[in-house]
Structure formats: structure tokens, C-alpha cells
């Protein structure tokens, strides 16, 4: 679901930068609700597919999952059945689920870059790019760790590396989102200055 929501946010940035005068007519509440609902439906269909494929496997060895949550890749390592079909589905269906939104994000930012480069003033270019910086930071962090976990053969990485990467995209990225997307928010900056000032005052 994060995949598709990041693509939706990229489209939102594309409309805001490339078609600012039409933003309110294009990004209507109805369209936003439809995009979020669509992301939720696709995510749940993805979960259902892997659950049904996992139900056909046998687990006759160790029943302790070497992970901090019930991840598909970690479960496959514990199965004593043939997991070839499951691994093929992770790669093929995963490509559609992961690459399609990623391509949409790339296309959006190519269009945004093209539009920004036509802006005559340096200040205008910086303002346009700065609105996209926080989103790009989350995209880089999210997709970098996802690709490291799911698009490598299971034998090429250890459980410890899988856990570290999974923590990045399931815990760290969502936790950083409020801060990353609010870096240009004056109220947040003011609140942070007050907190830092109180700590300095209390230590003196």
C-alpha cells in the first residue's frame, strides 16, 4: 500500500508543480478517496494471493521465524516443501506491484524536472524542487530497502540483513514521514526550537 501511496503523492506533486492553476479541479476529494481506496484494495489482494500460496506448503522443521514479523521471505525459508512457485510469484507479481508505482514516480519527476528547468528564476526553481525533496527522500529510503530484500535470491542475504532492511521500510520510514514532510513547516520548526531551548535552559 505504501508503494501506491508514494506513487499517488508523486502524481500530487506533478499536478502541483506542472499544473498549479488546475490543482484544485484535478486533485478533487473524490479522486483522492478513489486513489487511496484503490491502493488498499490492491494491497489486500496481494496479501490474499501470498496467503493462499503459503497455505499449500508444509512446515515440518523449526517453527521459529527468524524475523520480527511474519514476512513471506522468512516463512519460505522454514518450509520443507517446494517453494519454487512462491518465489517465482514474489518476483513476477512483485515486479508489477513494485515497479509499476516506481515507474509512475519516475515519470512524474521527469515531467516535474522538465517543467522546473523552464522556470527562468533560480528562486522559482529552488522553491519547486524543495516541495519534492521530502517525498524523494522517503522514496529513496523505502525502495532501496525493499529492493534489497525482495529482489535478490534468498540465498544471497542473511536473516540479519533482511531484518535490518525490513525495519527500515516498515518502522523507520513511516516514523520519519511526519518529520520529513513537515521540514518546511514553520510551526514545526518553531516547536523544535522551543524544545531545544528548554533543554538547554534546564541543563544550565
TrEMBL record:
Topology with respect to the bilayer: Multi-pass membrane protein
SUPFAM superfamilies hit by this protein: Family A G protein-coupled receptor-like (SSF81321)
Keyword Transmembrane in record: yes
Cellular localization per UniProt: Membrane
Alphabetical UniProt keywords: G-protein coupled receptor, Membrane, Receptor, Transducer, Transmembrane, Transmembrane helix
Entry's transmembrane regions: 31-49, 95-117, 129-151, 163-183
Main location class: membrane
Domain G-protein coupled receptors family 1 profile: 1-181
Pfam family, one: 7tm_4
Protein name from the UniProt record: Olfactory receptor 1F1-like
Organism: Echinops telfairi (Lesser hedgehog tenrec)
Amino acid at each position: 500500500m505504501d508503494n501506491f501511496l508514494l506513487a499517488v503523492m508523486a502524481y500530487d506533486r506533478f499536478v502541483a508543480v506542472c499544473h498549479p492553476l488546475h490543482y484544485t479541479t484535478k486533485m478533487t476529494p473524490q479522486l483522492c478517496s478513489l486513489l487511496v481506496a484503490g491502493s488498499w484494495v490492491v494491497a489486500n489482494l496481494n496479501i490474499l494471493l501470498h496467503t493462499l500460496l503459503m497455505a499449500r506448503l508444509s512446515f515440518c522443521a523449526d517453527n521459529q521465524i527468524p524475523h520480527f514479523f511474519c514476512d513471506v521471505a522468512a516463512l519460505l525459508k522454514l518450509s520443507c516443501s517446494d517453494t519454487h512457485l512462491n518465489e517465482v510469484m514474489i518476483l513476477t507479481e512483485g515486479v508489477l506491484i513494485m515497479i509499476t508505482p516506481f515507474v509512475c514516480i519516475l515519470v512524474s519527476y521527469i515531467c516535474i524536472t522538465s517543467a522546473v528547468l523552464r522556470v527562468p528564476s533560480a528562486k522559482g526553481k529552488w522553491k519547486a524542487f524543495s516541495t519534492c525533496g521530502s517525498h524523494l527522500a522517503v522514496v529513496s529510503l523505502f525502495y532501496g530497502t525493499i529492493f534489497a530484500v525482495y529482489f535478490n535470491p534468498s540465498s544471497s542475504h542473511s536473516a540479519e540483513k533482511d531484518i535490518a532492511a525490513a525495519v527500515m521500510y516498515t518502522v523507520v520510514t513511516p516514523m520519519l514521514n511526519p518529520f520529513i514532510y513537515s521540514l518546511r513547516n514553520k510551526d514545526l520548526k518553531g516547536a523544535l526550537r522551543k524544545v531545544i531551548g528548554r533543554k538547554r535552559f534546564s541543563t544550565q
